[in-house]
Amino acid sequence: MISRLLLCSLFLTSVASAVEVSLISQNVWFILTASVPAMDRIPDYIAEFRSGTYDILCLQEVWSGTQTTYPDLLFEGLKEVYPYNVSTEPRPLTGLNLGLDSGLMILSKYPIESFAFHQYGNSSGIDAFSGKGAMTAHIKVPDDDGSTRDLIVSNTHLNAGGPLEIRLNQAREMRNSIDRFLKNLEETEGLDIDKVPVFGLGDFNTDEWNDELTEVQEGYQQLLGVLGPTTKDIFRSLYPPDVEVGLTTSSSRIDFVFGLSGEYTVVSAGVDGFVQTANPAFRLSDHLGAHATVKLEPLSANGGASSTESSDSSMFGLCWSTMSLLFLFSSHLMTYA
Ligand SMILES: *[C@@H]1O[C@H](CO)[C@@H](O)[C@H](O)[C@H]1NC(C)=O
Ligand SMILES: *[C@@H]1O[C@H](CO)[C@@H](O)[C@H](O)[C@H]1NC(C)=O
């Protein structure tokens, strides 16, 4: 009986060892044309993010020209909660650029093992003078039992304006750069790249909706297609279009958390409007945050999905019979007490 109970509780612990991870994509609007200077809004962002609501922050428009001021301030203000970060180096004012980097920054509560940045070759208009791209990080999420879960997060900001084809080409570049990153992890660390959960977040500048918010745009469907056959718009997987439009700007839905591939379970998703309420005097951004929480299970054993299942179900049977016995035993005691 005792050993059965022990087995049973061991089994229950291993079931309970899935970890939940929350991610948010937020365009922070640190752009010179914003109505309130970035320096006046950074303290509000720090105060807000210090609450640690999300485990991983994917930020866009942390533009800092030829200096690292904005990423440095964010990192300094948040390092107790988010000790790990990646941002791109500022670009020198040489050649035909505005000294603008990618504007991308990832802040994480959990260790960032490695990362890669790919600058897009496709771009148009004023964006061609910046260094937009896709920033992909390999993050190790710790579990209660001392083990870790691998997680891949890619943060991006696609071309603003111009033809859709530019953004679709950038999304293809993003997909390719993630595949290269994964391939490398497979070769160097033996990572199971078919099962590791991969997420793509950011400001995709591709509206899900037409102007009347009545029809889903073909460009949005194409974006999903280009990002790969297993791509899932996590918010949309929970809220059908007729239930929640899910706008992330005043008139469009362009910020997304996409599940690209791998094993994970969706827990929740939503649009976070803290930028509208954090400071009553002004808005922190012209974009709202798109967030999602997912559950990461230990990756299933290679080629052993069915055998894992059968041993799990026999364990379930054992636990169930043990619990029924316990129940009988205690109700027996109660009857005679
Ligand atoms: C985080 O950012 C700071 C400031 O930009 C930098 O000095 C530090 O090396 C970064 N840390 C990591 C782990 O990327
Ligand atoms: C533009 O994107 C396509 C598709 O991703 C890619 O094949 C091509 O190399 C890119 N162009 C440049 C200049 O990088």
Automatic annotation (TrEMBL):
Query: Which parts pass through the membrane?
Result: none
Record carries keyword Ion transport: no
User: Which keywords has UniProt assigned to this entry?
Assistant: Signal
An example of a Pfam family matching this protein is Exo_endo_phos
Signal sequence extent: 1-18
Molecular functions per Gene Ontology? sphingomyelin phosphodiesterase activity
Q: Where is the Endonuclease/exonuclease/phosphatase domain?
A: 25-287
Protein family according to the UniProt entry? Belongs to the neutral sphingomyelinase family.
Please report the name of this protein according to its UniProt entry: Endonuclease/exonuclease/phosphatase domain-containing protein
